[in-house]
Design brief:
With 759 residues, this protein is mainly beta. Helices cover 9% and strands 37% of the residues. Strands 2, 13, 14, 15, 16, 17, 18, 29, 32, 35 and 36 form an eleven-stranded mixed sheet that branches. Strands 19, 20, 23, 24, 25, 30, 31, 33, 34, 37 and 41 form an eleven-stranded antiparallel sheet that branches. The chain binds 2-acetamido-2-deoxy-beta-D-glucopyranose (5 copies) and copper (II) ion. This is Amine oxidase.
């Protein structure tokens, strides 16, 4: 498989010259950098040392759910209060800390417990402390066993019950689906399954809703109408019980009742799932024919003038046409940006994705109950190689990403790309003309300015979905955040009666309706930490003007600006009739407060169901377009990675951020949601398309400057007629056109890094 993939991709490899690729030097050592591989190993060893007293089983895959073992190590957020004196002054670089999640199944009351370990590197000053301060649910870093991540160990403990139920009905599943499940390790087994999330509501019990599928590469699109629900509370498998079997939209609380119904002819499989799956692979489909001229190479975005950005790859620091920023990467959240400045002035302290929630609907136990928080699986850990020329333009800078993986560090080669791209439209243009029938004499001029942006991109494939995160730093000082989704639907079996949950998209497959809500954090520091959140409403008012006596009172638009006083979750106004701006008290040349506007882009949504039992309290961050809070070292994250299984008793409750603190002239964070209401369609087969599954937001200067940030760009043209109208003056501002060199080659490359590297 590996070599054939490499071969196909190598067939269209374009190598372009990269003149002037340059490196930057970060002003400071990156204080948000992830912990080093050496630190990860040392933290691992420290946790496993007898002195730590944690009694850990190593390696964890040999452990059972009643042992203690390390789930993972990651980088702990560096406190903003410690960073500012360092990046803005002569303060010391803040100490690095790791966080570690330990599954403590060996305790009398089994739990998951999170720790902070630091300062790093490990020395005799390094301490292992409970990590509580970033979780506000009341139990700190403790998560009850029932709610903890459903790992291989929990899977193994509930497997015997599942296998025994499925063995009892093997004759029926054979007749219905031509498949059996005698247990994962049984050679006769030819079905696979997925299970529900959340597995618990408040941690007091756990449920396992198993949905079977055919074992193909496209399992997400090949669901079978067969569900087994197990109650699996605690760590003692002898207490695990069958809640029931669901098929044909009917519930059977025992195997016997199910068998009686089957024998009575009440259970059928009217829409058999095909066993073939080529239809669901992202390959070219010969039967669809060809389109005229499409056999030619498609247009490409190429940095013809050479790199116009600089990177300090040691510090993950980037400079681009006035912009500068640091990047960081964590196992759970993936890419994060810090200290985002334009022309030397800070606009954003931190910009990072916080959570991607997906909630489904349907009249099946799985679709009805599914809510995902994809940080549960880790955006950093699930991001991987980008295909040059397709995921990112040819010639893009491809950076490796890495994350702690056990005692080691896994490198994901080429997981981040950076490139400058043409916007496809000009930034600005105007043509002045007095030619025409009504003018006595003619003059004309035309100015036009090129638009481009530096993009930083990564793609995380979390289970069925590929999330493309794109951050575009525009030449005019605006910044666009975009997220797109492709990949497989998490589909349900097709039922004739369930059109209200989504259309039939294949023989036996229904595209289950679902919401995607992707929560981001933007800790704005517009010219310092003291900012306000201004809402400028567009109101219609009645007024009269003396020069229109005949109108009396008439309707007129008016801007009514006010600052948000207290922390709040809020939605964008209907019809776009409000502007949202983070402002500083500092003013521009015109006496206006300098700010950055938050402009909704495409598909700015929030979760549809505010009160579903599966998303009740652990998903509050996904329930409004925007939220404004005061910055605290204790509130760095919107969510916690194991919160998903605690909808009724959250480990971390975003709603508690809103405790009436003032957000006027204070250090504030704006949380915002992107996403989509995924109205599934047959065009989601084989995979969802990035064109439609797209969402964005733009941050743009709002009186931040005294004028538009284009006047200093040289990539522009000014064309005017001279005194003699036949004469044309053409100003090109000295940017050469002819220095591009593109070498097209078709090398066979075997360095496509499909495999991770472990260090
Ligand atoms: C250590 O954990 C194991 C289970 O993994 C348990 O059997 C043993 O009693 C524990 N030892 C101590 C000292 O707690
Ligand atoms: C800690 O380590 C340092 C350097 O190795 C050493 O000088 C110091 O005495 C140690 N302190 C303690 C309390 O062990
Ligand atoms: C799937 O549907 C297509 C189109 O209706 C039909 O031709 C085909 O026979 C069906 N396959 C199965 C296995 O039912
Ligand atoms: C990225 O990983 C590759 C191995 O695939 C390695 O050769 C390369 O040096 C790494 N690049 C950077 C910038 O660390
Ligand atoms: C960050 O700040 C909190 C609150 O003051 C404190 O409890 C915590 O120890 C700090 N974290 C680090 C890594 O210093
Ligand atoms: Cu979707």
């Amino acid at each position: 498989m590996r070599s054939s993939l490499a071969y196909i991709l190598a067939a269209v490899t374009l190598t372009i010259a990269r003149p002037g690729e340059t490196s930057a030097r970060a002003p400071k050592t990156n204080p948000w950098a992830q912990i080093t591989p050496a630190d990860t190993a040392a933290v691992w060893d420290l946790l496993h040392s007898p002195a730590a007293g944690l009694n850990l089983t190593d390696p964890p895959f040999t452990a059972s759910q009643t042992d203690n073992y390390v789930a993972f190590i990651d980088t702990l957020h560096t406190n903003k209060s410690a960073v500012l004196p360092y990046i803005d002054g002569n303060g010391l670089q803040p100490a690095k800390f790791a966080r570690a999640v330990i599954f403590e199944g060996g305790r009398t009351v089994p739990i998951s417990q999170e720790y902070m370990i630091g300062p790093l590197p490990v020395s005799n000053r390094t301490r292992i402390q409970k990590l509580d301060y970033i979780f506000n649910g009341g139990k700190g870093g403790t998560v009850p066993f029932n709610a903890r991540f459903f790992d291989l160990q929990r899977d193994a403990a509930s497997e015997p019950l599942l296998a025994s139920v499925m063995t009892e009905v093997a004759d029926i599943t054979t007749e219905l689906f031509g498949g059996v499940y005698y247990g994962a390790d049984d050679d006769r087994t030819d079905l696979i399954y997925t299970f529900d999330t959340p597995v618990s509501t408040d941690g007091s019990s756990a449920v396992r809703i198993v949905m079977f599928r055919y074992p193909t590469e496209v399992e997400f699109l090949q669901p079978l109408d067969f569900y087994v629900i197990l109650d699996i509370p605690g760590t003692d498998p002898s207490k695990y019980t069958l809640r029931g079997i669901v098929t044909n939209e009917k519930f059977f609380s025992t195997v016997d009742k199910f068998r009686q119904a089957y024998d009575a002819g009440e259970i059928t499989n009217p829409y058999p799932q095909p066993r073939d799956y080529e239809w669901a692979q992202l390959t070219r489909k010969e039967e669809m024919g060809t389109r005229p001229l499409e056999n030619k190479l498609a247009p490409q975005s190429i940095e013809l003038g050479g790199k116009r950005y600089k990177i300090d790859t040691q510090q993950n620091y980037v400079e681009y046409l006035g912009w500068s920023f640091y990047m960081s990467w964590t196992r759970q959240l993936g890419l994060m940006f810090f200290d985002v400045k334009f022309k030397g002035e800070r606009i954003i302290y931190e910009l990072s994705m916080q959570e991607a929630t997906a909630q489904y609907a349907g009249n099946t136990p799985k679709a009805a109950s599914t809510v995902y928080h994809d940080t549960h699986y880790g955006f950093g850990a699930q991001s991987a190689v980008l295909v040059e020329g397709f995921d990112c333009p040819f010639g893009a800078t491809l950076l490796n990403a890495s994350y702690p993986d056990g005692r080691h560090t896994t490198i994901k080669p080429q997981a981040i790309c950076i490139f400058e791209a043409d916007y496809g439209f000009p930034l600005a243009r105007h043509r002045t003309s007095s030619f025409g029938p009504f003018q006595g004499y003619g003059f004309s001029d035309l100015g036009v300015v090129k638009a481009s942006a530096l993009h930083v991109r990564h793609i995380a494939t979390v289970g069925n979905y590929d999330y493309l995160f794109d951050f575009a730093f525009n030449v005019d000082g605006s910044l666009e955040v975009g997220v797109r989704a492709s990949g497989y639907l998490q589909a349900s079996p097709y039922y004739k009666t369930q059109g209200r949950f989504g259309p039939r998209v294949h023989n036996s497959t229904q595209g289950s309706y679902h919401d995607h809500v992707v929560t981001f954090k933007a800790d704005f520091d517009v010219l310092g930490t003291k900012n306000s959140f201004q809402v400028t409403e567009l109101k219609t008012v009645k007024q009269s003007q003396p020069w229109f006596p005949e109108l009396g009172e008439f309707d007129q638009m008016e801007l009514q600006a006010s600052n948000l006083k207290r922390e709040k979750q809020l939605n964008f106004a209907e019809n776009g009739q409000a502007m949202y701006t983070v402002i500083s008290e500092r003013t521009n040349a015109w006496g206006e407060k300098r700010g950055y506007r938050i402009t909704p882009g495409h598909s700015n949504i929030h979760l549809t169901s505010p009160n579903s039992p599966f998303s009740r309290k652990q998903s509050e961050f996904s329930k409004s377009h925007l939220a404004v809070t005061r910055v605290h070292d204790t509130e760095p994250y919107a969510n916690s990675w194991q919160n998903i299984n605690l909808p009724e008793a959250p480990q971390h409750d975003f709603a508690k951020f809103f405790n009436d603190e003032s957000v006027e002239d204070e250090d504030i964070t704006v949380w915002f949601n992107l996403g989509m209401h995924h109205f599934t369609r047959s065009e989601d087969i084989p995979v969802t398309l990035f064109t439609e599954a797209s969402s964005s937001i733009l941050f743009a200067p709002q009186n931040f400057f005294d004028r538009a940030q284009e006047g200093d760009l040289q990539n522009r043209r000014w064309i005017e007629t001279g005194e003699d109208q036949d004469e044309l003056n053409f100003e090109a501002y000295g940017v050469p056109l002819a220095n591009c060199a593109i070498n097209l080659r078709e090398p066979v490359t075997n360095i496509l890094p499909w495999e991770d590297l472990i260090v």
